[in-house]
Amino acid sequence: MLEFRLVQGSLLKKVMEAIKDLVTDANFECSSTGFSLQAMDSSHVALVALLLRSEGFEHYRCDRNLSMGMNLNNMSKMLKCAGNDDIITIKADDGGDIVTFMFESPSQDKISDFEMKLMDISSEQLGIPESEYQSIVRMPAAEFQRICKDLSSIGDTVIISVTKEGVKFSTRGDIGSANIVCRQNTSVDKPEEATVIEMKEPVSLTFALRYMNSFTKATPLSNSVSLSMSSDLPLVVEYKIADMGYLRFYLAPKIED
Amino acid sequence: APQQRPITFFFSPG
Question: Quick check: A44 and B7 CB within 8 A?
Answer without folding.
Answer: yes
